[in-house]
Amino acid sequence: MAVTLKDIANRADVSLATVSRVLNYDRTLSVSDQTRQRVFAIAAELRYSKRKRRDVKTMMRKNIAVIQWYSKTQEHDDLYYLAIRKGIEHQAQVYGFTTTSIFQNKLDQVGDDIDAVIAVGKFSPTQVRQLSELTPQLVFVDDDQFAQGFSSVVTDFTFATSRVVDYFWRRGIQDIGMIYGQEWSTDQQVEIPNQRQQSFKQALERRHAYHPEYVLAGDYTSQSGYVTMKRAIAALGPRLPHAFFVANDPMAAGALKALQQAKIAVPGRVKLFSFNNTSLAEYVYPEISSVNVETELMGKTAVDLLVNRFQDAHQAAQRIELGTTLVERESTK
Prior knowledge:
The model is unreliable at 52-58 (pLDDT under 50). α1 (5-12) crosses α2 (16-23), α6 runs parallel beside α12 (295-311) and α8 (158-170) packs across α9 (195-205). This protein is an alpha/beta fold. The protein folds into three domains: 5-57, Orthogonal Bundle (434 Repressor (Amino-terminal Domain)); 61-155 and 295-322, Response regulator (Rossmann fold, 3-Layer(aba) Sandwich), CATH 3.40.50.2300; 158-294 and 327-332, Response regulator (Rossmann fold, 3-Layer(aba) Sandwich), CATH 3.40.50.2300. The chain is built from twelve helices and 14 strands.
């Protein structure tokens, strides 16, 4: 006798509707990854097959190339992109896909057996074209290529940065500095615009409180944050801002070290607010307040977008922007 959705629902201890939506890859369904995995596992165990749609096993035979613009070393130094990749891998397992990680945009390492590409990082127009030639099933993460016709998963930088400025402003701090990063695509063709820096400038210009001398550029590494903050301390002296927004956690950790070496109290004299909220923000003293970015969810969402494409190759490109939250810790209290 044929296996029904009700059989799976009874075994999984979920509703019939939940089983139907999970097996139809409904991305809007709010259930845990564990529940999805359980439903798929029971469906496979009972050898359930759907009529008029590809069965679970057919959907599961997919190989995704995860093309990371960072090198392995860079990825481990900046846990932001590592967390995105882990999110991709975890969600791929939910659907039974296999993933192949390729670092530093080395497209010559992409095999002929891939079914889709998830490109993680920042890419020049030339690189976008090269990626699109590999497969039509292409999703970008942390790079907004929606205008070029490609599905993209991005983070809200503008509102998040504005909320950090509001956070300091409500506490009576109006001299706010920023340390941000400058980057180029791996082919050195395009300098990557820093949305956090642009949003920071706009937020303070609206308040007539933007001071360009309070804004310094680094390269997203801890050493860069350290050197850049030392430069600010030397150049500004007693005019050093009472608060800094730092573009990522490694730079914030380096800036904290420079302040501590100069015997400038944090948060007493200078408050620090970072971005990304990786585990590094909690492993320094004092712990650093940070904007929490749903990095793993970014990766998972990219896989979900591919599933939609596998079901309907003609589906229009989608742009998904994920929200952020502020996590307050000792560096701003």
